[in-house]
Amino acid sequence: MWAGGVAAMRGPDMRGPDGAVLVWEEVSIRYGSCRVVDGVSLAVHSGELVALTGPNGSGKSTLLSVAAGVREADAGRVLVRGLERKADPVAYARQVGWSPQQCGLYDELTVEENLRFFGRLQGLGGNRLHQNLQRVMGQLGLGSRRRQRVGTLSGGWKQRVNIAAALVHNPSVLLLDEPTSGLDAESRERLLADISRLRDEGCAVVLATHQGDEVAAVADRVAQLHKGRLGESARDPSRQPSISPPLLLYGQLRHPPPRFLLRLVRQRLPHGVELELIGRRLRLRAETAESLGYALAELLREGVAFESYRTVASSAARLA
Amino acid sequence: MRIGNWQILFALMVKDWLLFWSDRRAFLFSFLVPIILASAFGYIFERPASGSASGPRLPVCLVVEDSGPFTEALVRELLASPRLQAQPVDRAAAESALRHQRVPVAIVIPEGFAQTAARLGTLQEASKGGLLPQIVLLHDASRHAEVEWASGIVAEIVMKQLCAHHLSRWLPADWQSWSMPFQVVPVPVSRHPGRRFNTYTHSFCGMTLQYLLFWGMESGLLFLRERRSETWRRMRAMAAPLRTLLAAKALTTAGVGCLQVLATFTFGWLAFGVAIEGSLGGFVLLSLAVCLLAAAVGLLVAAWGNAEAHARNISIVVILGVSMLGGLWLPAFLLPEWVRELALALPTAWAMQGFSAVTWQGASFLAVLPCILAVLAFALLLLALAVGRLHVLEKRAG
């Protein structure tokens, strides 16, 4: 119900021809003579979480900053709901929420003051601003910290406020630049659970990270950047190596299982099977269908209840 | 400007005010420091107004190595002088007091002074270039004005005593109650007759101006940091127009500056009687122009500053320089003429002239208008330079 309400507030549906909310079209960016992004095309849909992975310097942050509108592409274009930024910068900005890698907040102000400020900058005021503040603080569990100065928060909480500031105007597209960097395992898990919930509520989320493994459990797709280009394997599945790729199972659980239960199941898993859990989203990775089936059976036997699940080959999960 | 931009302007200004109030250092620096320094400068340079009953008294040590009735009478006169605060000590104590800068001058009457000076032939010997009796003035090496002051008083008292000694037989018995046969009348002359110079007024005007410039610098450095942070990129991503961002920054800086002027002048009025004796409208307009100047300085620092520490150091040197040359520390008459002429190329000199005019000189609005226009012109010029440069920088960054 809440997701429907949020979607209704996001304004008229002006998606691209294939239904994508955010589209990079042959985007190239140079820093001097160095081409940091080279002809990248990528489309993201509502309710989809795309992980943009790659090593440091591969162009992830630059690609996000072009979509955020803080720099212009040297070639190509970025469309949000079919709209280019230069056509109407304000309307474009209202559709995009950008959470920069370094905390883009005022340490001296409280959580609420920061969010209120960025909300006003996005044209919100009065009741609507108040409602949006309540919603976003609820979504990211910031209610108890609203009067705390941002400078006194831990890294994990700061990152939540950083994301909340990008969400306060209820954008269609959420761009997250390395949101989990510098966080401990527990904070990272909680934050990823929050991000996947935002996706579930209908937001198109692009998450740039150099640690692809940690987001694989929550991402619907993984796009790999290398030296400013999307990986060849991701562009053309027919060029995959001949050996059979590992199998992946993504599951949505009814309730998060206790930690001891996961430890127990992990001890029984066959060699080569990986199990990850972020909030209620589970990921299993196995080399063969047999070992994947065995792991699934173990989980079911211990009473882990699935709402839904799907299996894919890992190469298919990577997409240009 | 669209309605949305007014809302953004308001949001940015609220944010900057919140940041200012959350920074205790900036608060102390902007409000308390100028008040303390202005009070201290006013106190240091305060002199009783000319013509007042209680004139200033020069503290001196009096070393008497001579004896006899002539010397005793001379010492009595020196101790009774209303312009000296003489303390009889021996030579060693006097030298110690001078070395420790407790007194600026010690008057030494050496042995045999009276015998030589009281001789009738002294004046004739003096006219022939003969050896004269001496009164020695030991003095602190850094205090020349006080030596001249003491020398004048000593000359007057000794001459009186010599006259009495040589002419008393021809004078009536009550001659000692005679006063000087003439009066020296000091009359202050300024552009506005009847107004007295008040050192507190000068120090409050000067320190307020200097610390307005310092506040402008602090605001500029804050903006410099902000422009390099992700908050700035975030604001730009939110399509906040550059002109709105800059206008908000300038208005907030000027607004805090106005508060600073109000606070320092209110304190000066309550504590030391610093009053706006001229045009109140002129004072208000001049204050607004000066606050705009502080905002322009801030944007200039943000536009041309490179590393923060570097920008701070250069700004401090420049602000102290223009403050000194503009007569913000000491009254302009103490500066050489060529410096005063050079200072006309500085906004601080015009601002200080304007503040002096509307405070202790009691000038009318029209009299202070040239100063207001000059400060405004400087402010607009600096604003134009800063905004132009920031536009170029933003274009490059985008």
- Separation of the first and last Cα atoms of chain B: 23 Å
Q: And the CATH topology of the largest domain in chain A?
A: Rossmann fold
What is the N-to-C succession of helices and strands of chain A?
Answer: HEEEHEEHEHHHEHEHEEHEHEEHEH
Question: What's the overall geometry of chain A?
Answer: globular
Decide which structural class fits the backbone of chain B.
mainly alpha
Q: Report the mean per-residue pLDDT of chain B as an integer.
A: 87
Report the C-alpha radius of gyration of chain B, rounded. 30 Å
Rg of chain A: 20 Å
How are the strands of the biggest sheet of chain A laid out side by side? 6-7-8-3-9-10
State the end-to-end distance of chain A: 32 Å
Helical segment tally of chain B?
A: 15
Across the major sheet of chain B, the strand order is 2-1-3-4
Q: Please, what is the average pLDDT of chain A? A: 81
Biggest sheet architecture of chain B: 4 strands, mixed
Whole-number total of structural domains of chain A: 2
**H/E element string of chain B?**
HHEHEHEHHEHHHHHHHHH
Structure commentary:
Chain B: This is ABC transporter permease. Chain B: One of its GO terms (molecular function) is ABC-type transporter activity. Chain B: The chain crosses the membrane at residues 200-224, 245-271, 283-304, 316-335, 365-387. The complex is a heterodimer of chains A (320) and B (398). Chain A has 2 domains: 2-230, P-loop containing nucleotide triphosphate hydrolases (Rossmann fold, 3-Layer(aba) Sandwich); 244-314, Alpha-Beta Plaits (2-Layer Sandwich). Chain A is 35% helix and 27% strand. Chain A contains 12 helices and 14 strands. Chain A has a 6-stranded mixed beta sheet, sandwiched between helices. In chain A, strands 2-1-4-5 form a 4-stranded antiparallel beta sheet, covered by helices on one side. A 4-stranded antiparallel beta sheet of chain A has the order 12-13-11-14. In chain A, a hairpin with a 2-residue loop joins strand 9 and strand 10 (229-230). In chain A, helix 4 crosses helix 5 and helix 4 runs parallel beside helix 6 (155-167). Chain A is globular, with a radius of gyration of 20 Å. Chain B is mostly helical and 398 residues long. Helices cover 66% and strands 5% of the residues of chain B. Chain B has 15 helices and 4 strands. Chain B has a 4-stranded mixed beta sheet, with helices on both faces. In chain B, helix 2 runs antiparallel to helix 8, helix 2 (24-45) runs parallel beside helix 10 (242-272) and helix 11 (280-304) packs parallel to helix 15. The chains are: A alpha/beta (320), B mainly alpha (398). Chains A and B meet through helix 3 and helix 4 of A and helix 1 and helix 9 of B.
